[in-house]
Inverse folding.
């Protein structure tokens, strides 16, 4: 039986957002979400279970990590070990092919690659649904990266499910970097704070399924205008729930707002471009492959924009070895 494996998983961007957990649910989402898995922006992770080790080890790039990152990795490995006939500690070596310090989401690709590599190395079930369920317990957004193209994670679901594969609807996503350095408040912490203190959280949870239905239908019908409208509303409703927390959570910066205004102005001129932001200041702009170059040029003209990374739909998690 192999005791090591290497897996690769891509990041995903939610067009319909997950923000909030069902209480005491082992990290099940309170609202349904829908995302696109992205080409590039990937994590490659090697897991080797070794009976000679006396503790789990985690290396990201060239840096050995301890504390919270190691704890979260151990929690996933413990779940795998609970199903393994020969549990042993593991050496985990992970690498992102995008700048980790830039504040781009890395937990989705990271935990999905880890879930696939650890399951395969331990010889337990490593089909996409099992990997998605394992990844979801560590980071709910990671559940969606098990699948390529569009995938969904329903409220309370154990695992994500595929919706449209990566070749079904060609789109361009322009990741617009508006700041340097990591974000101030991590997603898990920000989410729990919003649940506990924002009077708008309950309203968010009530309305989110309607936006999910709109987004889901728009994807099946390849209707970019409707998808864009649902995505922008999901984004701003999620940010409104964060803003109403006490103390407030403001993830946008002035450059993010200028990018939103630019995208809105482009649309008034008839250009199909739609914005979204996660728990951070960077703005992702959805458009068609044909319009991508001109929209990118307009985004690079916005004062304060650092760079624009063009991506498109990518594959689900795969085993490299
Ligand atoms: C999403 N985000 O749907 C939303 C939109 C950020 C904003 O999922 O606590 O790192 O690990 O389950 O998955 C980020 O939260 O949170 C996230 P945990 P996760 O992509």
């Amino acid at each position: 039986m192999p005791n090591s494996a290497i897996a690769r998983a891509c990041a995903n961007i939610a067009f319909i957002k997950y923000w909030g957990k069902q209480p005491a649910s082992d990290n099940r989402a309170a609202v349904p979400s829908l995302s696109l898995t992205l080409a590039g922006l990937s994590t490659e992770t090697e897991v080797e279970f070794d009976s000679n080790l006396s503790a789990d080890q985690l290396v990201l790039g060239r840096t050995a990590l301890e504390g919270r990152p190691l704890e979260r990795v151990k929690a996933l490995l413990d779940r795998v070990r609970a199903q393994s006939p020969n549990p042993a500690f593991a050496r985990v070596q992970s690498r992102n092919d995008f700048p980790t310090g830039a504040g781009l989401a890395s937990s989705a690709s990271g935990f999905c690659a880890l879930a696939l590599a650890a399951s395969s190395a331990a010889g337990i079930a490593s089909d996409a649904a099992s990997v998605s369920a394992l990844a979801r317990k560590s980071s709910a957004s990671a559940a969606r990266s098990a699948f390529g193209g569009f995938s969904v994670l329903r409220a309370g679901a154990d695992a994500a499910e595929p919706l449209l594969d990566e070749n079904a609807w060609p789109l361009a996503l322009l990741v617009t970097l508006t700041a340097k350095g990591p974000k101030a408040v991590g997603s898990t912490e920000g989410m729990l704070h919003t649940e506990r203190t924002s009077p708008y959280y309950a309203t968010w949870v009530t309305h989110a399924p309607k936006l999910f239905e709109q987004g889901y239908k728009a994807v099946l019908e390849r209707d970019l205008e409707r998808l864009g409208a649902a995505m922008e509303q999901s984004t701003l409703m999620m940010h409104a729930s964060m803003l109403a927390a006490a103390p407030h959570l403001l993830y946008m910066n002035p450059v993010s707002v200028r990018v939103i205004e630019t995208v809105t102005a482009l649309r008034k001129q008839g250009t199909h471009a739609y914005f979204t932001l996660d728990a951070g200041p960077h703005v992702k702009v959805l458009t068609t492959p044909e319009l991508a170059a001109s929209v990118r040029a307009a985004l690079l003209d916005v004062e304060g924009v650092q760079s624009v990374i063009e991506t498109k739909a990518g594959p689900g998690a795969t085993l490299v070895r």
